[in-house]
Amino acid sequence: MRHMKWITCGWPGLSRLWLNGQWTGLAVAAGFGVVFNTAIILQLKLAGQVSESVQHAGFFLTLVFWIGGCIDGILVTIQYQHQQKLGKQRHSEVVNTDAVVTKSSSGLASSDDGKKLNDSSDTEEENTTESLQSRTDDLFVRARNQYLKGNWLQCEVLLDSAIEDYPGDLESRLLRISLLRMTRRYEEALLEITRFQQWDGSSKWSFEVAREVELLDRILSDLEDSEITHAA
User: Deepest in the core among 157, 177, 211, 213, taking most CB within 10 A?
Assistant: First the structure.
């Protein structure tokens, strides 16, 4: 299963569909299927009925489509692995919590007793941090699943909870930008991008942020052109 993501590179569009859940990947995969089957029909079923130039053109188009799709699949897979690596790094980050560990100095008869109390406090704080990270990760995974299903309201509720528990969860914030774009709250999405870029470590997600900015710019440009057309 570990190598399954690389196998998807062999069919154009499958990597985008399998790894990122993009519907464009389904369209590309289906389109390649049509082109591939057409080339087979031209080479086998219609041999002698169509000119060789048409057959060669169909074969060449299929080959170019396949090579381009494989390259795109490799790039998508590499980017997916990069995101997975960053996601694992997120588990090792220190989470700032508001929990205050009260320490009492009374009853400390020796330095050994003080050391035991400090060790106990550190263990309690580490357990609290791990518990919070586990809850945040669970919320993010559930929110991503709801996003892929198109359940925008449930996704937003889960993301708000994740960000409230861990304001520095950049993955959840990035998914929230995509959610705002999908629900046509473009101004909020742009504002969220500005806030996102102010966080430490946001440069790691520069590719995803640039893509969101590009999509929003394209949408806003289309809306502006549409308004101009209606006004005319």
Answer: 177
